[in-house]
Amino acid sequence: MTPRPRTARPLAPLALAVFLAVGAAPAMAGYDEGLTAYQKRDWAAAIREFKPLAAEGNAAAQARLGHMLFEGLGGTKDDAEALRLFNAAAAAGDPLAQHWLGSAYFNGRAVPKDISQALVWFGRAADKGQPESLHAMGEIHFNGFGINKDEGRGVEYFKRAAEKNWPPSLERLAQFNWDGRAMPTDKAKALDYARPAADAGRPIAQFILGLGYLFGQGTEKDMTKAAQWFRKAADQGHPQSQHNLGVMYVNGQGVNKSPTEGYFWMALGAERAPANLKQNYEKERDSVGSRLAQPDLDAARQRMALWKPNAAGPQTASVSPAPVPPSPPSAQQSSTAPSQPTAGKVSSGSGFVVSTDGVVMTNAHVVEQCRTITVKPQDGPAQVAALKAKDSANDMALLKTSLRLPEIARFRQDRPLRSGDEVVVIGYPLSSLLSREPNVTAGVVSALNGMRGDPRHYQITAPVQKGNSGGPLIDMGGNIVGIVTSKLNAMKIADKTGDLPQNINFAIKADLARTYLDSNGVTYQTAASTTQMSVADVGERLKRVTVFIECRIE
Known about the structure:
By secondary structure, the protein is α+β, with helices and mostly antiparallel strands.
């Protein structure tokens, strides 16, 4: 069977990187010469020029000399002296030194690892517009490196760095727009971000451009250009691009047909493929190899043994905060027709708006492993949400949205609930079977502790189904007293006891939820439950602030 090029979600960068930044600096005798040598990577000359200037207190020279000593550029590596120079230059306000000092604290390099200090120094440099630090702040917030994950805030930093044409950030935004991660899918916009990043030598951006031209997504279909961009990324060792380039040689798409050349690139891609692609890549490589003459196969394997990836564009010096795990592959697509969107696996749940700036509270398990999260209020369109924070241990999560509702949920502020108090549950249960309309059920607090006496939970009798998770538990005054989290597995209990339990469900207590909001800096509202309402009135009020959450796991 003839293999087809595949599209896999681009591998996330394995580390943050910083180009050798120039930056504005005061002109002094010898500085321009040192800067020219630094840009040309003539480290010996740069050290010679910067060393006396650094001794005189020139912050820009101190920062660059510190960088060379920190990385051992020019033969001498001295972490202690580099940190002394970084500290002096950073204190004088040099953004490059502040960036490198943030990197040292983030990685625990020559100083104790301290994320809070890293954020201080990255933040100061970012405030001065240092693109490396803007990008670093983006990666830290987007991935939750040492802090609560906040994809929305991460994207904001990436956009600020992209405005300065910083290639790694342009590449990240190309990925997000292509995949629909933390924003709606927009192939054309993805290619707009990818082009300058690809021109700067970023392999994932080059891969995205190749996909755009291969399938005619976001641009006109052009096999020749697709092959050219795959080749640029393949030369740098990008495995998906190597595989796709090989398939194009096998099929003669955009390049002269050459099964031997195709085998060579497919074999390189299979050798370097991430685990989730490796088996398929190896199978397709072997299928092509089985049709080659032995001398051609031997020649291709000899080339592989000698092959080394090229570095394209400016060389980088690592400031890697932490590795970013590779993303899973997206759906495979045919090379003979435009790709079709894939539905992927979809789950759903409920949530409620807790702040005037659109923060939604839900369960952590509702948004676990989501590639794309959308929220839809009762009286509005669906929109993409970003994960702001997640606490899997207590099953709580916060989503950042652009919802601006006339009113928000309020937490009960007066006396605690008692066993027997009436409560209401609102949510979107069984959304694939029932209407996409908030469902209102009522019951009582049957126990003040949850399963096995868990003090974090209430036990409630209000009926709960799959999809209610993350929705609000409300008292008869219309105020939030908990978050619906789970129901007892009735069939499992029946198997053990011979009795089928009815309406034994659980909700996280509001005190725990409010503590979580406080710890994440979310401003919420409280109110006294002095006026008692009917179930219908409670439902009518709280439906407006309860949202349907859809999670796509591709």
